[in-house]
């Protein structure tokens, strides 16, 4: 059945059988109309064609203001999702669709903060400022290059073993949350840094008891706290005044890919996000960058 037909049936149900107030019904009708317009633009002519990923994309578009629309606050986008959920729940109850695809879609978090990122120039400065004269410095260089090249969480990078990288492959298998594995490219710069560390750095740190790739001075797996300190030290050497953390490189990885033309689904896979809604926050960062360029360069900004 066409989405608009279902929407009309639902609104009539709310008015006649549920006794919803005129003001509430007016608000629902406005949100339903917006949702119908989005589905039509997405080519969904039957409610059975709609998937949970469509609902996630709809909420993301509301948040970032797609197609020239005004971006909605998390609370407003959340209310719009509530209306869409009500519509889909009604369709299931009436036997019009088989599954409630909206029930598992999470509303956007209130007060969602855009992640801090570094520019491409700042990341290059950070990595180029890493010395490589000692085994520990070779390790630090390889660690930072790997984090930025893969966009992996610091725990995922620290979880790598020597066997994961010893064959010179340009793609790594990373184990993420819940033990889920995914493939991530390494890149030539990171691969070279890893190889240099394996040949001239790690043997001096190893005591033979740990298979972890990144080792501390005792020959055991490097800790998250140590990785944090390595990044702080690198930022100081590069003269960066931003307050950066291991996650900053992950945020920068995602933002730079999107700005370079990568699609959000690909970035979702690389980051290991279960939902594209989580990845969509990086499109907000890119939009902010675009607006800043526009404000600086446009004669009538």
TrEMBL record:
Q: Identify the residues that the record assigns to the Core-binding (CB) domain, covering every copy.
A: 1-92
Q: Does the keyword Mitochondrion feature in the UniProt annotation? A: no
**Where primarily located?**
cytoplasm
Enumerate the CDD domains for this protein: INT_XerDC_C
Q: Which Pfam families match?
A: Phage_int_SAM_1, Phage_integrase
Active-site residue numbers: 153, 177, 247, 250, 273, 282 (o-(3'-phospho-dna)-tyrosine intermediate)
Q: Where can this protein be found?
A: Cytoplasm
Q: Which GO terms describe its biological process?
A: cell division; chromosome segregation; DNA transposition
Query: Cross-referenced PROSITE patterns, in alphabetical order?
Result: CB, TYR_RECOMBINASE
Q: Which InterPro entries match?
A: CB, DNA_brk_join_enz, Integrase-like_cat_sf, Integrase_catalytic, Integrase_recombinase_N, Integrase_SAM-like_N, Recomb_XerD, Tyrosine_recombinase_XerC/XerD
Q: One GO cellular component from the entry? A: cytoplasm
Q: Which family does it belong to?
A: Belongs to the 'phage' integrase family. XerD subfamily.
Q: What does this protein do?
A: Site-specific tyrosine recombinase, which acts by catalyzing the cutting and rejoining of the recombining DNA molecules. The XerC-XerD complex is essential to convert dimers of the bacterial chromosome into monomers to permit their segregation at cell division. It also contributes to the segregational stability of plasmids.
Could you identify this protein by its name?
Tyrosine recombinase XerD
Q: Which organism is it from?
A: Corynebacterium qintianiae
Lineage of the species this protein comes from: Bacteria, Bacillati, Actinomycetota, Actinomycetes, Mycobacteriales
């Amino acid at each position: 059945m066409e989405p608009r037909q279902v929407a009309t049936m639902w609104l009539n149900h709310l008015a006649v059988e549920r006794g919803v107030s005129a003001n509430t019904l007016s608000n629902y009708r406005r949100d339903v109309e917006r949702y119908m317009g989005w589905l039509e633009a997405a080519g969904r002519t039957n409610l059975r064609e709609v998937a949970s990923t469509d609902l996630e994309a709809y909420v993301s578009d509301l948040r970032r203001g797609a197609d020239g629309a005004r971006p909605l606050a998390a609370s407003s986008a959340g209310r719009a999702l509530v209306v869409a959920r009500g519509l889909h729940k009604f369709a299931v109850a009436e036997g019009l669709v088989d599954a409630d695809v909206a029930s598992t879609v999470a509303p956007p978090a209130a007060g969602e903060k855009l992640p801090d990122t570094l520019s491409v120039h700042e990341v290059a400065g950070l990595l180029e400022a890493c010395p490589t004269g000692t085994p520990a410095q070779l390790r630090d260089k390889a660690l930072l290059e790997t984090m930025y090249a893969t966009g992996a969480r610091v725990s995922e990078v620290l979880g790598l073993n020597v066997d994961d990288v010893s064959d010179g492959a340009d793609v790594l298998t990373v184990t993420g949350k819940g033990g889920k594995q995914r493939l991530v490219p390494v890149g030539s710069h990171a691969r070279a840094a890893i190889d240099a560390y394996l040949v001239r750095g790690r043997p001096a740190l190893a005591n033979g008891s740990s298979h972890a790739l990144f080792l501390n001075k005792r020959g055991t797996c490097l800790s998250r706290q140590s990785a944090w300190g390595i990044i702080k030290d690198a930022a100081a050497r590069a003269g960066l005044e931003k307050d950066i953390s291991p996650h900053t490189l992950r945020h920068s990885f995602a933002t730079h890919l999107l700005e370079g033309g990568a699609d959000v689904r690909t970035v979702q896979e690389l980051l290991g996000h279960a939902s594209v809604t989580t990845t969509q926050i990086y499109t907000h960062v890119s939009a902010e960058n675009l607006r800043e360029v526009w404000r600086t360069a446009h004669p009538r900004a």
